[in-house]
């Protein structure tokens, strides 16, 4: 037998015992009045009827308190206490008055009556005050209950009203938000143990610990609990327990579930994005970064229709560098985008991300019949554009847009790093070339000069001529080194320059002896004039050194650029690729850097340098933009 049951039996039994005792006294009075004193029966019954009914009521009330399990133990105990306390108080006061009247030798019924009335008035006052306070408290509780019930019904959080039966948290009721999120009907779930309904396998121990704390009346919050919906989907919640006053409510508390699944998944995707970014930083090319990015968008962000268009400055176009297989299946190979052709170009030029909720309503859409209905477009800081599509209008929310922008920022950082590493690689290659020349090519003529200088000290006059030749060779190599150093400089501001004027300036700065320059070029070309002049000087010097002092050099315009041609023997086709490498030469006294420097300058302008055979069989160097 539980402690609550024992308290209920003890309280109800005490009340029934008191009623039985008082009933016995009343029945004895009836017997004495009728049998002993001979009073009329109806007067005696009338005199004792009301006390007899009250006494029997006490007996019945005690039995009800004992047998009714629905009554709370606290209520039974309080009721018994006040009944016994009232009886003892009135008995004590009446006995007090009766004692002194007996001592005086005179019983005063009117005094006894007035004292009983006074006690009744005081008891009535106390009951009235208590009842007034109780009613006020009930009104406050009713107002509070109405507010709580309004919050219960209208809250966007999932709320379950819980009552503990033993140690099991049973559901007394759930609000509409709970039904909507968890997918249960309120009638079907009432009376069920909440831990047995929505707690996934493996989490029973943690759920039991939460229920134990709630059973003890604790108010607390637990972040990131996983619960199952009726369909078996796992969602993440913030759980708050709110205990209720058992005397005012028919429940022990509320379990409030705030759905944080979206935030939880956002954090998971953010973490995965940071991991993917570390991998992007290890890739050395923009093409490779683009491919890895669309894979990350598909695997981490579940963005199936993702692609990256990179900018080609020569073509002035955005070409498709990478895209998911779903795009291939849906639209085939994505198109190359040119200025003014699509929203993507507007985003690329403006540098402002856009979310197009309905592509069909967008006038600037590339294809008005596209199977994609909505699109996220994020610029890549001059590298290109990240595009994410969906087949339904307004398919993306703010978190999708935010993650796409974060991914794009990571891609920008990775591509900038790849560019820096590429520049560093080129610088390292130039440094290696410098080292090679300084350690080998310059050392050779220096050794020759030192050797002949010793002969000159011994009286060999011709040795000084050989020393002079070695020093001239060193001077030539140092000049090439200086040009090679300038090769690492970026092309300055490009502007229209007169091709013929720059060619003539270069010719005047070149030791051309009896060579002839013919210019068949007119008009202007977009170039850095200083670097273009350096290019011409290297080509003219190369022609004089390899053909002879009487060489004729022609500079003429082409459809997409210009060409420089000499009338020498030309360059064999099998050597044309080699001559553009640093240090390659077919002459014993050549440096092997002139054509390589010209090629680097051309690349800085975005030109392609090609070697062909001229009209007279000589070498022809063609410089044109990519078409």
TrEMBL record:
EC number, UniProt record: 2.7.13.3
Spans through the membrane: 9-30, 50-68, 80-99
Keyword Nucleotide-binding: yes
Taxonomic superkingdom: Archaea
Keyword check for Membrane: yes
GO MF entry, a single one: protein histidine kinase activity
CDD domains: HATPase (cd00075), HisKA (cd00082), PAS (cd00130)
PROSITE patterns per the UniProt record, alphabetical: HIS_KIN
Catalytic reaction list: ATP + protein L-histidine = ADP + protein N-phospho-L-histidine
SUPFAM superfamilies assigned: ATPase domain of HSP90 chaperone/DNA topoisomerase II/histidine kinase, GAF domain-like, Homodimeric domain of signal transducing histidine kinase, PYP-like sensor domain (PAS domain)
Protein's recorded name: histidine kinase
């Amino acid at each position: 037998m539980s402690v609550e049951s024992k308290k209920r039996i003890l309280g109800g039994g005490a009340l029934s015992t008191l009623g039985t005792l008082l009933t016995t006294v009343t029945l004895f009075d009836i017997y004495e009045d009728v049998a002993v004193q001979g009073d009329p029966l109806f007067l005696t019954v009338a005199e004792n009827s009301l006390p007899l009914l009250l006494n029997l009521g006490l007996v019945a009330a005690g039995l009800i308190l004992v047998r009714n399990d629905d009554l709370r133990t606290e209520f039974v105990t309080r009721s018994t206490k006040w009944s016994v306390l009232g009886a003892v108080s009135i008995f004590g006061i009446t006995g007090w008055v009766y004692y002194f009247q007996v001592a005086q030798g005179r019983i005063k019924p009117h005094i006894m009556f007035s004292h009983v009335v006074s006690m009744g008035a005081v008891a009535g006052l106390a009951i009235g005050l208590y009842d007034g306070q109780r009613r006020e408290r009930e009104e406050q509780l009713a107002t509070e209950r109405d507010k709580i019930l309004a919050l219960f019904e209208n809250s966007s959080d999932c709320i379950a009203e819980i009552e503990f039966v033993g140690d099991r948290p049973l559901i007394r009721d759930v609000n509409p938000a709970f039904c909507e999120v968890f997918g249960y009907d309120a009638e079907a779930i009432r009376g069920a143990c909440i831990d047995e309904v929505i707690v996934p396998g493996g989490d029973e121990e943690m759920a039991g610990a939460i229920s134990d704390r709630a059973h003890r009346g604790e108010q607390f919050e637990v972040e990131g609990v996983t619960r199952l919906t009726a369909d078996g989907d796992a969602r993440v919640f913030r759980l708050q327990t709110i205990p209720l006053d058992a005397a005012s409510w028919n429940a022990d508390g509320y379990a409030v579930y705030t759905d944080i699944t979206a935030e939880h998944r956002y954090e998971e995707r953010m973490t995965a994005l940071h991991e993917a970014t570390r991998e992007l930083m290890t890739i050395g090319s923009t093409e490779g970064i683009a491919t890895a990015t669309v894979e990350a968008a598909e695997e981490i962000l579940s963005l199936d229709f993702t692609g990256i268009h990179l900018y080609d400055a020569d073509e002035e176009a955005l070409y498709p560098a990478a895209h998911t297989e779903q795009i291939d299946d849906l639209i085939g190979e994505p198109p190359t985008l040119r200025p003014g052709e699509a929203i993507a170009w507007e985003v690329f030029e403006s540098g402002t991300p856009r979310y197009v909720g309905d592509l069909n309503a967008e006038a600037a859409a590339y294809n008005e019949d596209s199977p994609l209905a909505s699109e996220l477009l994020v610029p890549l800081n001059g590298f290109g554009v990240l595009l994410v599509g969906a087949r339904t209008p307004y398919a993306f929310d703010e978190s999708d847009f935010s993650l796409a922008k974060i991914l794009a920022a990571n891609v920008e950082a990775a591509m900038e790093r790849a560019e820096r590493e590429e520049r560093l690689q080129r610088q390292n290659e130039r440094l290696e070339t410098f080292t090679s020349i300084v350690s080998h090519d310059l050392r050779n003529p220096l050794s020759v000069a030192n050797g002949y200088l010793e002969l000159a000290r011994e009286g060999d006059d011709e040795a000084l001529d050989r020393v002079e030749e070695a020093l001239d060779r060193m001077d030539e190599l140092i000049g090439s080194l200086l040009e090679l150093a300038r090769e690492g400089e970026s092309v300055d501001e490009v502007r229209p320059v007169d091709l013929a004027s720059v060619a003539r300036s270069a010719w005047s700065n070149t030791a051309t002896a009896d060579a002839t320059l013919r210019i068949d070029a007119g008009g202007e070309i977009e170039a850095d004039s200083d670097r273009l002049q350096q290019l011409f000087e290297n080509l003219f010097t190369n022609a004089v050194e390899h053909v002879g002092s009487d060489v004729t050099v022609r500079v003429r315009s082409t459809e997409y650029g210009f060409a420089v041609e000499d009338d020498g023997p030309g360059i064999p086709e099998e050597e044309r690729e080699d001559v553009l490498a640093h240090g390659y030469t077919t002459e014993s006294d050549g440096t092997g850097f002139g054509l390589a420097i010209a090629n680097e300058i051309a690349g800085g302008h975005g030109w392609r340098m090609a070697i062909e055979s001229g009209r007279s069989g000589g070498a022809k160097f063609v410089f044109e933009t990519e078409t």
